[in-house]
Amino acid sequence: MKGKELRQARIRELLQDTDLETHQMLATALRRRGIQVSQSTLSKDLRELGVVRMPRPEGGFRYAVPEAGAAPRDLHLLERELRDYQVRAVRAQNLVVVKTLAGHAQSLCAAIDRMQWSEILGTLGGEDTILIIAPADQDAEALLQRLREITGDLAP
To answer: Any idea what DSSP says for residue 65?
Structure first.
């Protein structure tokens, strides 16, 4: 296994087994396993692995690696997260902006990404806002309608 593959495999293992809240905590855990990593390399690895910060029930956040590929379970999770955390969704040309409760945008964004819907070119998740980029205006409208159907909000 190459250096990058080994490092990313260890990151996945650590994030599945341990609640790590910061880059520093993750870098320290990797060092304990004999893997030295710079801040920029760690950030790049987290992006490539699709790692998101998820809220913890007791407060605060933890890093989590989303499962790959969309499955029926993924759709169920997306439906639940949309109903629980989406505040509103609006379209602006080929963009859909989804407002969420604070701290839930990144996990909801990861759930949307796992769907691999053809109407989506890419997503960006912040603290309470998701930006979804569609190829064209009509794709954004179709996506907005899909989100509204899932949440039961059929109002235009």
So the answer is: P
Q: Residue 45: which CATH number?
A: 1.10.10.10
Nearest to 26 by CA among 128, 17, 136: 17
85 and 146 fall within a common domain: yes
> Is 156 part of a structural domain of the chain?
no
Q: Domain of 129?
A: 72-151
Tokens of 156: 């235009």
Find tokens 């039961």 and name the residue. Answer: 152
Encode 71-105: b = buried (16+ Cβ within 10 Å), e = exposed. Answer: eeebeebbeebbeebbeebebeebebebebeebbb
- pTM of the full structure: 0.56
Q: Which residues contact 52 (CB under 8 A, 6 or more apart)?
A: 63, 64, 66, 106, 107, 109, 110, 125
Please check whether residues 77 and 95 belong to one and the same domain.
yes
pLDDT digits (tens, 9 = 90+) for 57-113: 677 778 877 655 555 566 777 888 888 888 999 999 999 999 999 999 998 998 898
Indicate if 93 and 109 belong to the same structural domain.
yes
Structure tokens at 76: 């169920």
First to last CA, the chain: 52
